[in-house]
Amino acid sequence: MKEVKLSKKHQIVLPGEARKALSLKAGDHLLVVVKGDLVMLMPKPQNYTKALAGRGKGLYGKSEAYLKKERESWNDRKTGKIPGPT
Q1: Range of the structural domain that residue 62 is part of
Q2: In the 8-state DSSP scheme, what is residue 45?
Q3: Predicted TM-score (pTM) of this structure
Q4: For labeling, which of 1, 38, 51, 72 is most exposed (least CB within 10 Å)?
């Protein structure tokens, strides 16, 4: 863990280790996320769609099983096994 000092202008210098890990260069934009007493810095994505692609993978467990169950419930409503909205 590296320690940095806050300057009189409220600036810090990111250690080289952190800059290299995030592939940062001068002029890059960072996002600052504050959660309680924790502050996270991360590179600002140039394209949010590409940056978020695949992040929800596994959110619903096995997606094929989840979709099958949902589609079965639609069929059950059509056949009257489960009453639909009134």
Answers
A1: 56-86
A2: P
A3: 0.54
A4: 1
